[in-house]
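Morning!

This is the sequence you dropped in the shared folder:
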Amino acid sequence: MIVVDTNIIAYLHLSGEFTDRAEALLQQDPDWVAPVLWRSELRNLLAGYMRRKTLTFEEAREIQAEAEDLMAGGEHEVDSQHVLELVRDSECSAYDCEFAALAIRLGVKLVTADSKLLKAFPKLAQPLAAA
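The structure's back. Tokens below.
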């Protein structure tokens, strides 16, 4: 089991330079988990693609549905106090600290593309390339 941030989920579903790595990670460890927040973050990312006319509404809807199918059963609520403690002790956003809080609670690694998370939590977070 690993915690993945929204970027990793997006890389899997949006073809690009990191898609192969995300696919390899999924093959290596298919038990992906994330805080429920990932859904909103992915929707926001897809909204940007739709506004730039990079994706149609139907494509965005399909990607969101596929991602939700992948993450079904792997979504977790996180403790707000713990998230705020991590925010207090780092330069990371509360959104990003949700992923760190979940990884800490579950005692697993966090795979992320976020440089602030990697810097703030070097023993917990690892980049996709190293996963």
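Headline: The mean pLDDT is 97.

More detail when I'm at my desk.
O.
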